[in-house]
Amino acid sequence: MGVTKENCRNELRTAIRQLTDRCLYSASKWAAEQLVGIEQDPAKYPPSHTRLQRDCSSIRRRFRSTDETISTPIAGTSYVSTPVPEEESEAADSDFYLLAKTYFNCREYRRAAHVLSDQTGKKALFLRCYALYLAGEKRKEEETIELEGPLGKSDAVNSELVSIERDLSTVRKNNTIDSFGLYLYGLVLKEKGDQNLARTVLTESVNSYPWNWSAWLELQSLCTTIDTLNTLKLNNHWMKDFFLASCYHELRMHNESLSRYESLQSTFGFSNYIKAQIAKAQYSLREFEQVEAIFEELLRIDPYRVDDMDMYSNVLYAKECFSGLSYLARQVFMTDKYRPESCCIIGNYYSLKGLHEKSVMYFRRALKLNKNYLSAWTLMGHEYVEMKNTPAAVDAYRRAVDINPCDYRAWYGLGQAYEMMGMPYYALHYFKKSVFLQPSDSRLWIAMAQCYETDQLRMLEEAIKCYRRAANCNDREAIALHRLAKLHSELGESEEAAFYYKKDLERMEDEEREGPNMVEALLFLANYCRAQKRFEEAEVYCTRLLDYNGPEKETAKSLLQAIKYAQSGFPSMDVEHFPS
Predict the structure, then answer these.
(1) Neighbouring-strand partners of residue 4
(2) CB within 8 A of 308, min separation 6: which ones?
């Protein structure tokens, strides 16, 4: 069966109230953003109701549905109808529940739990356990800071996990647990390392109540392979498409992820979340122009947005767009300077200015706010590499891979650091890990090839294989073709060398680039064509070399003279080989 836009609206409106009532504010915020992202009919609603949906012309959904039904990329799939559960009657507990909520909102978690200690309803049980969980997390963080400092590693654990697990496992066995209790139970099991049971419990939670995005995210963190994802028995609710799109992105299946998001845009055409996720997928595909266009649009619609803007700053940094990055840094500084994303953006700004120590200061500030903030560890590692502080760089990159072993940038950074320390075998090990995770990135293949070329390894055939992969992966830096030509020349493989020099020359002509690489290619090709008695081609290359003023001009003159002698039938001049 299809699901209409109006059904989605009604489901989300009810879910937002229920999530907020249980203090699940991140999930409530996400649901509210999707609610506003559903296109409104301008004829039915006043302009104030469609303000956020006007002027969104540059990034429009590619699929439009004439009837108001959510489409799905999988042919023949029908969505199940999951009624939003009615709230249970807890009139006797409501006053205590309201008091507990006020304590919770003031971050007095233990007081909130204490108020609900005698209450028996499902809502009260959830909020009591959730408050205890957050109290335990808060204490764990305090112990870490006391023992190791704000960025230190620690064996501190959440001391409330055991009692929460005991209470929730009992109500689950009695079949009196609701979907919110299942969500929290799954979160506790994940923290304790029982991943299989955590997956089962979280699947039960999202199947019974699919609107809790926080539960989906916890389930996603337990799906580190496509095989694990495929084993999940999930109902075909429309929220499943959001989940799969996000999972595909994390599993580096970026085209599949884009396909899901584009399908969802038929209903959630004005969802800023979906636009940002599309930008993330295109960022991973290195489509920087499109990413920049999406983030410019997002900032125009939502000028005080900080979520995901650190990725936008990475794009501006890669493009060396100083003015754009300066504007973005100022904007987030004025909006909320103590968000980890804001600190990373400002750190990127100072890095682009070459102020690496100040950049590190802001990345450290981001980590003090959230020490599991992955990109801050990786970016700080990059800064330490620039500062030639390799031990600190290695430590930062290791912290990043501890948080997420699938972060190819951190593995690549480790490879760079060990390469700087003159340890190519270690560097190669880490480059291999990075290229396994991101095989479409030419920079990783080039780094691995350069490792094979080092004096300690001298594995030139392996280097050639890596450069070939880089050349097939849209090598933007134009390194691979030139290195392939050089290596084949060094190995005496003139025909292969000529093939790659010619391809490199064609690319330089297309990009209107001049320089020593062009001179080198022209010299080699002139010599090669002369040796193959392809004199007309050789003359063309020599003639082009006459436009230069260096020693290559004299070499070209000598070559032209030798070619004329050879064409006239005279014995060959005593020119064994001209330097290339």
Answers:
(1) 69
(2) 276, 279, 280, 295, 298, 341
Per-residue three-class SS string for 462-515: HHHHHHHHHHCCCCCCCCHHHHHHHHHHHCCCHHHHHHHHHHHHHHHHHCCCCC
Q: Classify residue 62 as exposed, middle or buried by CB count within 10 Å of its CB (0-12, 13-18, 19+).
A: exposed
Cα–Cα separations (whole angstroms), residue 198 to 158, 180, 284, 466: 17, 14, 29, 41
Question: Alpha-carbon distance 510 to 518, whole Å?
Answer: 12
Q: Is 380:360 a contact under the CB 8 Å cutoff?
A: yes
Nearest C-alpha neighbor of 380 from the set 365, 399, 371, 393: 393
Residue 154 tokens read as 């620690």
| Whole-number Å distance between alpha carbons of 367 and 413 | 18
From CA 514, how far away is CA 135, in angstroms rounded? 63
Alpha helices in 390-459 (DSSP H): 390-403, 408-420, 424-437, 442-453
- Burial class of 373 by CB neighbour count within 10 A (0 to 12, 13 to 18, 19+): buried
Tokens representing 89 are 């009657």
467 with 446: CB under 8 angstroms?
Answer: yes
- The alpha carbons of the chain give a radius of gyration, in whole angstroms, of 30
What letter does residue 303 receive in the DSSP assignment?
T
Query: What is the C-alpha separation between 308 and 424, in angstroms, rounded?
Result: 35
DSSP 571: P
Quote the CA–CA distance of 353 and 333 in Å, as a whole number. 17
Q: Residue 398 has which token pair?
A: 């290791």
pTM for the predicted model, two decimal places: 0.81
Three-class SS string for 151-220? Answer: CCCCCCCCCCHHHHHHHHHHHHHCCCCCHHHHHHHHHHHHHHCCHHHHHHHHHHHHHHCCCCHHHHHHHH
Cα–Cα distance measured from residue 220 to residue 242, given in angstroms and rounded to the nearest whole number: 11
pLDDT tens digits for the chain (580 residues)?
457 889 999 999 999 999 999 999 999 999 999 999 998 765 565 655 555 555 554 454 433 333 444 444 444 455 666 666 666 555 545 899 999 999 999 999 999 999 999 888 899 999 999 999 999 999 988 888 777 766 767 678 899 999 999 999 999 999 999 999 999 999 999 999 999 999 999 999 999 999 999 999 999 999 989 999 999 999 999 999 999 999 999 998 999 999 999 999 999 999 999 999 999 999 988 888 999 999 999 999 999 999 999 999 999 999 999 999 999 999 999 999 999 999 999 999 999 999 999 999 999 999 999 988 999 999 999 999 999 999 999 999 999 999 999 889 999 999 999 999 999 999 999 999 999 988 988 999 999 999 999 999 999 999 999 999 999 988 888 899 999 999 999 999 999 999 999 999 989 988 888 888 999 999 899 989 988 888 888 888 888 888 888 888 888 888 888 888 777 765 555 444 444 4
Residue 283, phi then psi, degrees to nearest 5:
-65, -45
Angle between helices 254-264 and 239-250 (to 10 degrees): 160
Tokens matching residue 295: 């983030």
| Residue positions counted in the chain | 580
Two structure tokens written together for 57: 């012309």
311 token code pair: 């990725």
